[in-house]
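hi support,

uploading two proteins for the ticket. first:
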Amino acid sequence: MLFDTTFLIEADRSGSALDDVINDEDDVAIAAVTIAELRVGVALSIGRSRRLREAFLADVEATIPALDYNAHVAREHADLLVAVRQQGRPRGAHDLIIAATARATRRTVVSADKSGFDNLPGVSVRYQR
């Protein structure tokens, strides 16, 4: 499984600990770009919210391996860019990187965002809130 950012944000907002959303037998990871997205959320928040988001991000980084954007992911990313342009249905740049990472590593994207990953060729998605 490859957790997308929206899934992690929903887990954080609901007060779920990562242990609550990850079973011991689950092989989970995140795309490296997910760390960037979560860091933006930390940087744009203030006060108590910022401290809580920092703690959540630290937990994510300590618990879930981040997969690099490498040449294999780049090839999958290019294929997905072509596919969405041909479909006439653009997607967010980061969502496509997450999808490409999942496709390159043969993982299922776990997302709370139904629109970001619909109808992407070769990308398996499980929607979960």
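and the second one:
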Amino acid sequence: MSAVPRQPDAIAVRLMTDADLAAVLPIERRSYGFPWSQSIFRDCLGAGYACWVAERNGRVQGFLIMSMAAGEAHILNLCVATDARRSGVGRRLLGHAISVATSCGVDSLFLEVRPSNEPAVRLYSENGFHEVGLRPGYYPMPGGRREDGLIMARMLKFGDQDNEGVE
């Protein structure tokens, strides 16, 4: 039996560990004006949320955190390092989350995104998410202002073959 060699630039998704926070936190801080704290990440890991990192050539380039309960899943945070954007990392993480949620029998997957984050809105739309609502003043902005959160959802069906093509 021969092993298929792994492409050196392939994006690998694996479970996040506490040790990954040293790589995850700088990605979060460079990406958001109001980043999550280390304790929030630790709480997510401790609560048993689905937490993954995406690596390329042994370097963490992004992460995704998702909660699942009662037939629903919610993507809480999807973030890609600034120098790895538009390279497939976000798409790979999103595809992984959709596959896991589907295999767990989740019926619907939700997320919030800033309407001003056009690349993210486009990524989600291209992967079957649709606008289902708005959370007024959801995201903090500089100067005490707030930006609405666009609520997007994708309906899933256990065993849906369409979900496999996302990754």
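thanks. also noticed: The first helix runs from residue 21 to 31.
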